[in-house]
Every structure is written in structure tokens, then in C-alpha cells.
Automatic annotation (TrEMBL):
Its cofactor is FAD. One of its GO terms (biological process) is cytokinin metabolic process. Residues 1-20 form the signal peptide. Keywords: FAD, Flavoprotein, Oxidoreductase, Signal. One of its GO terms (molecular function) is cytokinin dehydrogenase activity. Belongs to the oxygen-dependent FAD-linked oxidoreductase family. Its EC number is 1.5.99.12. Pfam families: Cytokin-bind, FAD_binding_4. Residues 52-233 form the FAD-binding PCMH-type domain. This is cytokinin dehydrogenase. It comes from Dendrobium chrysotoxum. SUPFAM superfamilies: FAD-binding/transporter-associated domain-like, FAD-linked oxidases, C-terminal domain. It catalyses: N(6)-dimethylallyladenine + A + H2O = 3-methyl-2-butenal + adenine + AH2.
Length: 528
């Protein structure tokens, strides 16, 4: 059997023959680079989670989709085929973008803009922009604002993520209740499949691949272009936080708010759990002034756990005179603690980029590049109160080591044909434990071991209580856990799509679902 090094030499020879192409207005200059240098492979072995290490043999920085297609076709000729994973900004949590012993395709970076001017399409009846799969959402925002005052409709809380990365999962934030996730706001994709074929797909063209790739965890292809829906960007945001001590009132108000339509609604709805005072002034925003932090004791919540409802109303300077009245009318229907209304006003871009400002502060303190044992769950609305009693008021104790988000979404805004797995109810909640471990801390509740064990307790509680929660950004061990995650019907579809679009099982091996050495479609040809 040829050695991995021998296989890599063959791949290097293929890379030297790559040529550039243009695709749908995205002109990409030829500068393919496949490197074995530790300065490139070592950073590609870790991610934001900082809990895994998957060292690749090499890193490819493609200048065009054809670079990726040639690489995949070449990797399939190895025996066994070499694993390949696309990596955006490296913000995965459990090594999902890794390719141990294989090749990481570095989609982001390089300093080149790969976006076309926004287009007002008669075909789609919408405005859109075509972007390279490795572009960061912050750069898409800045580009579309500068070219027509436009912006994407659906976001993630943190904008320094790649387009291809979020579309491979879902891409969610407080706008998802109305617009759906980012995968519901894409008109068309260019994808390099696991066969090395460059395919354009949409709801009407190659639709099976289109729906497979969206939320597909990188298993079916690498997104090289995405056609993103746009809308006119508002100029300013009224940002409101209100507090609750009663969980039933908190969730009832959230679910009522996401049912509203038209202009008489908020534009963004999220929430978070507060079990210690520090987290009301958490790292996710600079909402409250550091010189004037909010004290829970001053609010009189009357309990150990409080719940914060976070809302925004977008507006333009021309409608500034009516924004107070609109917000007051919406707040009047809610049942929060009366003395707990906090508001601020800021430019739309500053609100969208709020987490990055806090990132800079944490980097300055050396508290950004630490382990992040995050756990993200979709919890059915019918069981969210059981989850509150068992987790927020039970397992967590009085320390969280990071924000805990909780907000509802409407399943009708999601396309069931995508690869994403959701609870089987019309309304479900994202519950996101965004915790950070602090190496060397004397507080054991801030250790990676403690937080990881607490995550396992939460998952075990859901199982024992019969709460059919589904992991978002999932991390599972072994085929049995993955089959349980997808459920029989979804798993059958997932396997069928894998056999069609990546029959050698070389893509997205960091997810731990398939691997070329144990591929159910070709395992007899490539024994481990």
C-alpha cells in the first residue's frame, strides 16, 4: 500500500497543474498553494473549542473551485482515499473541521475579496449577492452596505464566521424566528462534491444536492459560492433588555412575540439565563456601561435565577419620531419585572458586530483562546419548563462560566428537506451553553473537566426525562449515536445522499460520522 507521504507527493504534482476559472461573476486569480509546513498545519489542527487536536498532512489554500475539485479527484486515487475537510475561520468546537492525516482546505483568509456586486433579480424577485464560500459574514455585511445600503436578512450572533461554515450547520440568531436560519435565505450554491464535481444547485436545479449541503455538516460537498438574499439595511437599532423571575411568563412572552407579523413586531428576539450576577453584564455585548453595571439585587427579582429577554427594533432616521411609541406598545403586552427595562440605541452595524467588540477585550486579557466546551441544544417547547427545573434550577448550581442563551424559533421557517435535525414540534428553543474554561484557575467550576462533565449531566438528564432535545453543531461518538441523532427516516436520507455525493467518504471526517477507511459504500475496496 502506498504511504501517506507518497500519496501527498502525488497530490502536490496535481496541484501544480491547476488552473483558475471564473464562476458566476467571481473571478479568482490562480495562486494555488498546498503546503506541508508546520506553520500552516499546526494551526489547522485546532479550533475555537480548543479541546481536540487533529493534525493534517497538508493545507490547501485554493484560488478557485477547480483547485478544490482537482484536489478531491486526486485524493480519491489514494488507497485508502485521503480525508479532506473545509475550514473557514476555525470556529468549530469539537474538531468538526479537522482532517487528521488528510488535507484541510483553508477557505478563508488570503486578503482577497471574492464577492460580486449585489443584483436585483427579476428571476428571484429578490436582491442577492454572490459570495465565495470562505468569505466572513462581517465582510459580506460591509460589502453589501457599501454597494447599495443592503444587508443579509438572517444572521449569527458572531460575524467572524465563514459563509460556507454557517450554511453547513444552519446559521441562527435572534432574527431566525421571522426569516428562518441562514440556510433558509440562500437562493443558489456552487458545490464541489466528494466526487470532485463542481455543481450549481438550487431549489429547482440539482435540488437534492442543494438540500443535502444546507445543514449537511460538510458531508456532501464544499460550498464555493453562495447566493445570499439581501434586504435594505436599517440605519439604527433600539436595543432593549427586560428581566423575569418567572420562567413561565418569560417563555410565554417569547412565544407570543415570535407569533407576531408585519411591522408591529420586534426584529430580533433572544434571551439568556442569569444564575450569577456577573452574567447580566456578560461578554456577548457592551450593552451596559462597565462604569455602571446592573446589580440583580437592585432589581428585586426575588429568586436565584433570572431570565433576560433581549429585543431589538430596527428603524431609519426618518422614522425616529415614532420608534419610542412602537416599542412602548409592544412592551406593554409583556409580563416582565416592572423596574427592569434597560434600553440603548446604536447603529445597525454596531449591533450586529457586538460580540466582536467583546472578543477584542477578552483577547487583550488572554481569555479568548481558551477551551470552549460549548453545548447547543434544540429543545421542544412542550418540555422547556422541565428543562428549566432540571438544568437551570438544578444541574447548573450558581455558576455558569459563560452566557446561556435561550430563545424560541418557528419550525415553519425551516425547510424540512435540509439536512438539519430539529425537534418534532412547531416551536422549539435554542438553549446554548457558551462556557469558557480557564486553565490554571483555582475555581474548579471553571475547569474544562468540570464543564465537560456538566454537559454530560445535561444530556443525561434530557435522556432520562424523555426530553427529545437535538444537538445543534452536533458532536456524537460512533455510528449508533449519530443514527439516534438523525432518527430512522433522516438517517436513511443522509446515508443515501452520502453514497450519491461522497461515495468514498472523504469529506468532513472531523465530524466522526464517516471515514474513508470504514466507508460503508467502499469499505471492501479500502481495508483499514
Amino acid at each position: 500500500m502506498p504511504s501517506a507521504t507518497h500519496n501527498l507527493v502525488l497530490l502536490l504534482l496535481f496541484i501544480h497543474r491547476l488552473i483558475s476559472i471564473s464562476t458566476v461573476g467571481l473571478s479568482l486569480p490562480p495562486s494555488p498553494a498546498l503546503t506541508l509546513l508546520p506553520s500552516q498545519t499546526l494551526p489547522a489542527a485546532v479550533d475555537f473549542g480548543a479541546t481536540t487536536h487533529s493534525l493534517p498532512l497538508a493545507v490547501l489554500r485554493p484560488s478557485s473551485p477547480s483547485d478544490i475539485a482537482s484536489l478531491i479527484r486526486s485524493a480519491r486515487l489514494s488507497s485508502p482515499p485521503l480525508p479532506i475537510s473545509a475550514r473557514g475561520h476555525g470556529h468549530s468546537i469539537n474538531g468538526q473541521a479537522g482532517a487528521r492525516g488528510g488535507i484541510v482546505v483553508a477557505m478563508s483568509g488570503g486578503g482577497r475579496r471574492r464577492m460580486s456586486p449585489p443584483v436585483n433579480s427579476m428571476e428571484f424577485g429578490k436582491t442577492y449577492v454572490d459570495v465565495w464560500g470562505g468569505e466572513l459574514w462581517i465582510d459580506v455585511l460591509n460589502w453589501t452596505l457599501a454597494n447599495g445600503g443592503l444587508a443579509p436578512r438572517s444572521w449569527t450572533d458572531y460575524l467572524y464566521l465563514s459563509v460556507g461554515g454557517t450554511l453547513s450547520n444552519a446559521g441562527i440568531s435572534g432574527q431566525a424566528f421571522h426569516y428562518g436560519p441562514q440556510i433558509s435565505n440562500v437562493f443558489e450554491l456552487d458545490v464541489v462534491t466528494g466526487k470532485g464535481e463542481l455543481v450549481t444547485c438550487s431549489q429547482d436545479e440539482n435540488s437534492e444536492l442543494f438540500h443535502a449541503v444546507l445543514g449537511g455538516l460538510g458531508q456532501f460537498g464544499i460550498i464555493t459560492r453562495a447566493r445570499i438574499a439581501l434586504e435594505p439595511a436599517p440605519e439604527r437599532v433600539r436595543w432593549i433588555r427586560v428581566l423575569y423571575s418567572n420562567f413561565t411568563s418569560f417563555t410565554r412572552d417569547q412565544e407570543q412575540l415570535i407569533s407576531l407579523h408585519g411591522q408591529q413586531r420586534f426584529d430580533y428576539i433572544e434571551g439568556f439565563v442569569i444564575v450569577d450576577e456577573g452574567l447580566i453584564n456578560n461578554w456577548r455585548s457592551s450593552f451596559f456601561s462597565p462604569s455602571n453595571p446592573v446589580k440583580i439585587s437592585s432589581i428585586g427579582g426575588g429568586g436565584r435565577v433570572l431570565y433576560c429577554l433581549e429585543l431589538t427594533k430596527n428603524y431609519h432616521h426618518a422614522s425616529a419620531d415614532s420608534i419610542d411609541e412602537e416599542v412602548e406598545a409592544l412592551l406593554r403586552e409583556l409580563d416582565f419585572i416592572p423596574a427592569s427595562v434597560f434600553t440603548t440605541d446604536l447603529p445597525y452595524v454596531d449591533f450586529l458586530d457586538r460580540v466582536h467588540k467583546s472578543e477584542l477585550k477578552l483577547r487583550a486579557k488572554g481569555l479568548w483562546e481558551v477551551p470552549h466546551p460549548w453545548l447547543n441544544l434544540f429543545v421542544p417547547a412542550s418540555r422547556i419548563e422541565d428543562f428549566d427545573r432540571g438544568v437551570f434550577r438544578g444541574i447548573l448550581g450558581n455558576n455558569t462560566s459563560g452566557p446561556i442563551l435561550i430563545y424560541p424559533m418557528n419550525q415553519r421557517r425551516w425547510d424540512e428537506r435540509s439536512s438539519v435535525v430539529l425537534p418534532g414540534e412547531d416551536i422549539f428553543y435554542l438553549v446554548a451553553f457558551l462556557r469558557s474554561a480557564v486553565p490554571g484557575s483555582s475555581d474548579r467550576t471553571k475547569s474544562l473537566e468540570y464543564l465537560s462533565n456538566q454537559n454530560r449531566q445535561i444530556l443525561k438528564f434530557c435522556e432520562s426525562a424523555g426530553i427529545e432535545a437535538k444537538q445543534y453543531l452536533p458532536s456524537h461518538r460512533g455510528r449508533v449515536e449519530w443514527e439516534r441523532h438523525f432518527g430512522p427516516d433522516k438517517w436513511e436520507t443522509f446515508q443515501r445522499r452520502k453514497a450519491e455525493f461522497d461515495p468514498s467518504c472523504i469529506l468532513g471526517t472531523g465530524q466522526g460520522i464517516f471515514h474513508p477507511t470504514s466507508c460503508p459504500f467502499t469499505s471492501s475496496l479500502f481495508p483499514s
